[in-house]
Sequence to fold (51 residues):
Amino acid sequence: MTFDDPDPVLDRYFKGTPLGFLEYRDGKLYYLQGNEGYTRYLLSCGSVTKE
Fold:
């Protein structure tokens, strides 16, 4: 699965509910992609900064 190709089903869910895709690799957590709601959530709990 890539985020390069549009997917109407994924778009419907990804735009509605706060969602983010993370990957755990080599002992670290990597943020792959998230929608606006998920980004606002991360900012509100201090998990990330706008930078």
